[in-house]
Design goal:
Alpha-Beta Plaits, 2 domains, 34% helix, 16 strands, four-stranded antiparallel sheet, 25% strand, alpha/beta, 10 helices, Aminopeptidase, single chain
Length: 397
């Protein structure tokens, strides 16, 4: 049996264990940078596979290297994120979240369980490949500054230094059994915008005695969209969305201030900087022109994510070998963001998608929703595919 068939066979045979690991993780989610029990579970599993994980990287990260023959020849890194989201799960599965208000609604339980399966496969095949595979179980993908940036600062891309890094992420728009790839620019930068419009409150029946921050905030929100429609090039994808407005007045009370929160996304770093400056200047200027003040706070998030074209082309070809060309699809750009982007600015990187959709089973919810789930048939594929992609990369000179 050749190596490809061995990996496929082991991935299928591991499916029940991979599903069990995923369900355990799904039932016990932990928020960003608080993944203490999750990290302990990961490390325990890795030790069961005969590996020696490094714990406490960026506090709750776990890293382990699997060394084949001639271990110093080349190193390839594989990454999974481990944190959950502050969402109350509404599904009634047997493995639903047991932690109120916390849910694996973005598939990080899938990524982690899949990479654990990859670890088990590769640990049993050390004599069949040359080089080293470094597995990175990373905390804090869902919250600034991004666990990837912290892991990099703590040297995760050193000792040994990988020549490339791969990341796998669920995609509920792609049927289970298929995977998706895209060369070049793929995901957007992401910055958080916080505006505080400060006016003068008072009685709703005497607005002339106030400086109404609610009306001013409304003008600012509408006006800022002109930055997207009239300042950004129509050839340059960009998004400005405000999803939270707090004005603690009442039907007859004008409050002193209004708080607004939103996100700015871009696929170009120069425009990203320019756009953020324009948002700040316009918000402050409009408030001032209406007799109010606007405090602008920008929380810098993740950079854009670019899939190295040569690397992505190689692993796509390897995925076609593993799954068949008919099960490998093209991805479009997205204005979503991912802190895997930090790795892509350091070394050749590729971030691909694992299909998890199954309409016949009613599994269609998108990520970051309280009903998100996956077709667990995808877990027969995920571990083996990552193992095969890693081995194939180690073969590249």
């Amino acid at each position: 049996m050749n190596l490809l068939d061995q990996i496929k066979k082991q991935s299928t045979e591991l499916a029940a264990e991979t599903v069990a690991n995923r369900r355990h993780l799904h039932a016990h989610p932990e928020l960003s940078y608080k993944e203490v029990n999750t990290a302990q579970f990961i490390a325990s599993k890795l030790r069961d596979y005969g590996l020696s994980p490094q714990e406490g990287v960026a506090e709750t990260g776990v890293v382990v290297s699997i060394e084949g023959k001639n271990r110093e020849k080349k190193t390839v890194a594989l990454r999974a994120d481990i944190d959950a989201l502050p969402i109350q799960e509404t599904s009634e599965t047997e493995y639903k979240s047991q932690n109120p208000g916390v849910m694996h609604a973005c598939g990080h339980d899938v990524h982690t369980a899949s990479l654990l399966g990859t670890a088990k496969i590769l640990s049993g095949l050390k004599d069949h490949f040359e080089g080293t595979v470094k597995l990175i179980f990373q905390p804090g993908e869902e919250k600034n500054p991004g666990g990837a940036s912290l892991m990099i600062k703590e040297g995760v891309l050193q000792n040994p230094a990988p020549s490339s890094i791969l990341g796998q992420h669920v995609m509920p728009l792609i049927p289970a059994g298929k995977v998706g790839f895209r060369e070049g620019m793929y995901m957007a930068s992401s910055d958080e915008i916080y505006l505080t419009v400060i006016g003068k409150g008072g009685h709703g029946a005497a607005p002339e005695l106030t400086v109404d921050p609610v009306v001013i905030a409304a003008h600012i929100i509408i006006a800022l969209q002109q930055i997207i429609s009239r300042k950004a090039s129509p050839k340059q994808p960009t998004v400005l969305t405000f999803g939270k407005i707090i004005a603690n007045g009442a039907t007859n009370i004008i409050p002193d201030e209004v708080k607004i929160s939103g996100t700015f996304r871009a696929l170009n770093e120069a425009w990203r900087e320019e756009g953020l400056q324009k948002i700040k200047a316009m918000a402050e200027g409009m408030a001032d022109s209406m007799g109010a003040k606007c405090h602008v706070k920008i929380s810098r998030g993740y950079p854009y994510l670019e899939n190295n074209p040569v690397l992505t082309r190689r692993i796509r070809n390897a995925a076609e070998e593993y799954l068949g060309k008919e099960n490998v699809v093209d991805l479009d750009i997205t204005l979503g963001s991912e802190d895997f982007a930090y790795y892509s600015h350091q070394i050749p990187a590729s971030f691909y998608r694992l299909g998890t959709r199954n309409e016949s089973k009613g599994i269609t919810s998108y990520v970051h929703t309280p009903t998100f789930d996956i077709d667990e048939e995808a877990l027969k594929i995920g571990p083996g595919l990552m193992a095969w992609l890693a081995v194939k990369e180690l073969m590249e000179i």
